[in-house]
Amino acid sequence: MISNIKFHPSAVHNKHFRDLRKRVKLRVKCLPKKRTKSKKYVAFSLITVYVLVYLMSIHYLDNVLLFFALYGILGLVAVLIFINIIHDAVHNAVFKEKWLNNAITYVFDIIGGNSFIWKKRHMLLHHNYQNVVGWDSDIEQAGLIKIFPQDRPNLVNRNQHWLIFFLYPLYLINWILVRDFKDFFMKKRVIKKVCVIPVVEYFKLFAFKLIFLFYSIGIPLIKGVTFFIVIKAFLFMLCIGSVFALIFLLTPHANESNQFPNPDVAGALNITWLEHQFCTTNDILLDNWFVRNLMGNFNFHLAHHLFPNISSVYAPEITQEIQKYAQEFSFRYKSHTLIDALKLHYRLIKTNALSVNLFEEDM
Question: Across residues 32-53, what is the average pLDDT?
């Protein structure tokens, strides 16, 4: 088994990155510092909105349609909290104080996730080895959908280009109720290559999951709502959140315009770290108030992978420097409209479905 992934060494590309980093630091230095304050306001505002929407849903339990609608909004706000707050906090890019960033990540546990295992997946695997089969745990799925072209196919993969319309809305259901537990308890999970889980995290896993299930399902049941209505509302919340989340989580990496580098038997890749960032990541052409304030500039994704510890509030200007540098030194910078990126994702899924060889399937 490969113990580690090694990028192709290049003194030239190392110098390229140092020069680009200098340009970016100079650009950021000239930008308004008040942007980082607005980031904090947005963080607390989204958390407040989540709490208020939940309290409204409990108040209007006797109105089934409104109860469902408010739970659907909870799903959307939870995704906004994840993308705009949790994603930046694990990179220590919301507050200056590291302990505050660590503290706010517990919001993710309260809304159903597991901050410990996701931080490990994201920081140790995805940010180091995005789009590398067997190493990028952010793309690692339950095996029903073949995203990596190199993945071993199964019977389901032959029809995945239409099954995704049924399976993708279950994304958060799988993440919250299945995937986190697999990462904790299954020995062959990708995360086990780089992470030893402390015993206390097992207790926190169950404690926070129970808290999430208690306020999402238990309290409405205690208040007299029938079991089937509560479960339907709960699943509706997660399905709405799933669709919204995947629109933004899949498009920067998992599409046909990006490469999926394949390491050799020794774990070596034939590209440098800098090339890897450009060939596995694309931006989404969106820049408006919603993107800057509620999506944490998540669509400026290459800037995030090159400079993850710089606050996302500066991502649009950092991207401008990246574009100029890429053009100057012949790096291929990629950006798509959201619609085109979704089409490219679908083409990847369909191409992988059509490439399935019956004789290679796991029966």
Answer: 93
What's the one-letter identity of residue 105?
A: T
Cα separation, 285 vs 340, in Å, equals 10
Q: How far apart are CA 153 and CA 356, in angstroms?
A: 6
Is the CB of residue 108 less than 8 Å from the CB of residue 206?
A: no
- 348 near 69, Cβ under 8 Å? no
Burial 98-110 (b: 16+ CB within 10 A, else e): eeebeebbebbbb
Q: Please tell me the distance from the alpha carbon of residue 49 to that of residue 76, in angstroms, as a whole number.
A: 11
- Measured in whole angstroms, the distance separating CA 121 from the mean position of its chain's CA atoms is 10
| Burial label, 46 (beta-carbon count in 10 A; 0-12, 13-18, 19+) | buried
- Residues 186-209, mean pLDDT to the nearest whole number: 93
C-alpha distance from residue 180 to each of 202, 210, 212, 337 (Å): 11, 14, 14, 32
Cα dihedral 209→71→337→332 (10° resolution) = -10
For tokens 């029938």, name the residue: 226
- The string of pLDDT tens digits covering residues 129-141 is 999 988 998 877 6
Task: List the beta bridge partners of residue 283.
Answer: 335
Identity of the residue numbered 306: L
Measured from the Cβ of residue 167, the count of other Cβ atoms closer than 10 Å reads 16
| Beta pairing partners, 6 | 268
Band of pLDDT at residue 361, cut at 50, 70 and 90 = very low
Q: Which residue type occupies 133?
A: V
Residues 6+ apart with CB under 8 A from 22: none
Q: Which residues pair with 335 in a beta bridge?
A: 283
Contact indicator for 109, 119 with CB cutoff of 8 Å:
no
Q: What is the DSSP letter of 6?
A: B
Which pair of structure tokens corresponds to residue 356? 């399935």
Distance set, CA 181 to CA 68, 93, 115, 185, 191 (Å): 27, 28, 13, 6, 12
Beta strands in the chain (DSSP E): 283-284, 335-336
Q: Which of 196, 60, 22 is nearest to 124 (CA)?
A: 196
285-312 per-position pLDDT tens digit: 988 888 888 888 999 999 999 999 999 9
Residue type, position 84, single letter:
N
